[in-house]
Design a protein that fits this description.
The chain has about 170 residues and is α+β, with helices and mostly antiparallel strands. It has a single domain, classed as Thiol Ester Dehydrase, Chain A (Roll), CATH 3.10.129. The chain has helices at about 30-50, 135-150, 160-165, and strands at about 5, 10-15, 50-60, 70-80, 85-95, 105-115, 125-130. Strands 2-4-5-6-3 form a five-stranded antiparallel β-sheet. It has a two-stranded parallel sheet with strand order 1-7. A hairpin with a 3-residue loop joins strand 4 (about 70-80) and strand 5 (about 85-95). It starts with a strand and ends with a helix. The relative contact order is 0.19. The structure holds coenzyme A (COA). Coenzyme A binds near residues 54, 55, 83, 85 and 150.
Length: about 170
C-alpha cells in the first residue's frame, strides 16, 4: 500500500478563547480543548486515510499550561504513525503572544483514530514515511504507546506487549 508523509496529514486549527469556553479562573475549559484537539485529529486522520474515521482512544493529554481568556490558540495535528487500520495522531497546542506574535507551546496530546467503512468496520490505511527527526522519534515510540493503550483497555495481555516489556529488560 502507498506511503504518505506526516506532513500530508498536517492540520492546523486556530481560534480564540471566548468567555463561554472558560472555567472560573478565566482559563480555557479542559473539555473545550479536548474537543478542539479531537476535531483537528479527525481531520488529520481523514487526510491520511481518505476514509471515515472515528476516535478509538485518547492516549495522552498533558495540560501543562493554562490558556487564558482571549488567547489565540493553535492546534496542530499530524499522523505520527499508521498501523493496519488505526492511526496515532500527535497534537501540539500553541498560544500566541498578542504583542510579539511569539508562539509558546501550551499542551500536547496523542489520540488514536480508526478508519472505518460505511458499516463502521475497520479498514486498512496507508503506511507512513516520517521525514524529520521529530517525526521519526514520534514514529519510533508509537508502537509502545499503542501497546500501552491496548493493555490499559484490556485488549492486549501485558505478556504480549513486547515493546513495553523491552523497556524493562
Ligand atoms: C474504534 C473501533 C472502530 C475499533 O473497533 P474494534 O472492533 O475494536 O476493532 P479492532 O479490534 O479490529 O481494532 C481496530 C484497530 O483499532 C485499534 N484499537 C482499538 N482500541 C484501541 C485502543 N484503546 N487504543 C489503541 N488502539 C486501539 C486496534 O489495535 C486496531 O488497530 P490496527 O488495525 O491498526 O492494528 C470501535 O471500537 C468503535 O467504533 N468505537 C466507537 C468509536 C466512536 O464512536 N468514537 C467516538 C466516541 S464519542
Amino acid at each position: 500500500m502507498e506511503l504518505k508523509t506526516p506532513e500530508e496529514s498536517k492540520t492546523t486549527l486556530t481560534d480564540l478563547v471566548l468567555p463561554s469556553e472558560t472555567n472560573p479562573l478565566n482559563n480555557l475549559f479542559g473539555g473545550e480543548l479536548l474537543a478542539r484537539m479531537d476535531r483537528a485529529a479527525s481531520i488529520a486522520a481523514r487526510r491520511h486515510s481518505r476514509r471515515i474515521v472515528v476516535t478509538a482512544s485518547v492516549n495522552h493529554v498533558a495540560f501543562n499550561k493554562a490558556v487564558p481568556l482571549g488567547s489565540v490558540v493553535t492546534v496542530e495535528a499530524k499522523v505520527s504513525r499508521s498501523f493496519k487500520t488505526s492511526m496515532e495522531i500527535f497534537l501540539d497546542v500553541w498560544i500566541e503572544d498578542r504583542e510579539s506574535g511569539r508562539r509558546t507551546k501550551a499542551n500536547e496530546a496523542i489520540y488514536t483514530f480508526v478508519a472505518v467503512d460505511d458499516m463502521g468496520n475497520p479498514v486498512p490505511v496507508p503506511g507512513i514515511d516520517p521525514q524529520t527527526k521529530l517525526e521519526k522519534d514520534r514514529f519510533e515510540a508509537a508502537l509502545r504507546r499503542k501497546q500501552l493503550s491496548l493493555v490499559l483497555a484490556g485488549k492486549l495481555k501485558p505478556k504480549d506487549a513486547t515493546e513495553l516489556k523491552a523497556l524493562f529488560e
